[in-house]
Amino acid sequence: MTIIVGYLDTPEGRAALETGIAEAALRDLPLVVVNSPRRGAPVDDDMLAPEQVSAIVDRATDHGVRVEVRQPLHGDSLAETLESVAREVDASLVVIGLRHRSPVGKLILGSTAQRILLDASVPVLAVKADR
After folding, report:
1. Number of neighbouring beta carbons within 10 Å of residue 31
2. Which of 34, 57, 63, 122 is the most exposed place for a label (fewest CB within 10 A)?
3. Are strands 2-6 and 91-98 parallel, antiparallel or unpaired?
4. If we measure between CA atoms, which residue out of 62, 64, 80, 60 comes closest to residue 72?
5. Domain range list for the chain
6. Do residues 59 and 25 lie in contact, with contact meaning Cβ atoms separated by under 8 Å?
7. pLDDT of 3-46, one tens digit each?
8. What is the CATH number of domain 2-128?
9. Model-level pTM?
């Protein structure tokens, strides 16, 4: 069993990472951090630089968590990419970050988050960043 974190270097992504590390430490499970740039994008600001990957590994290791950072390319569906990794590593939990929404925005959950929540074959823990 493994815990997966869908990660972007945003406040929401950092909240998901911290929660994923805590859950992995609590359950004594390995962690797979998925940072998935869009396939075909000439430049993707969401792709982590090597020093960012090292910082994530160091952070997890400091908490006694075995961690792997993956950067698979995704096409139209990040949800499918996360589901594919979840099946491959026999995931027991997926952790994602959610943005705070306005009252009107709360009527419509972000399409990527919604797809992950609805399509995942394992439980999904959705966390928000501190304001």
Report:
1. 26
2. 63
3. parallel
4. 80
5. 2-128
6. no
7. 999 998 989 999 999 999 999 999 999 999 999 876 555 456 67
8. 3.40.50.620
9. 0.87
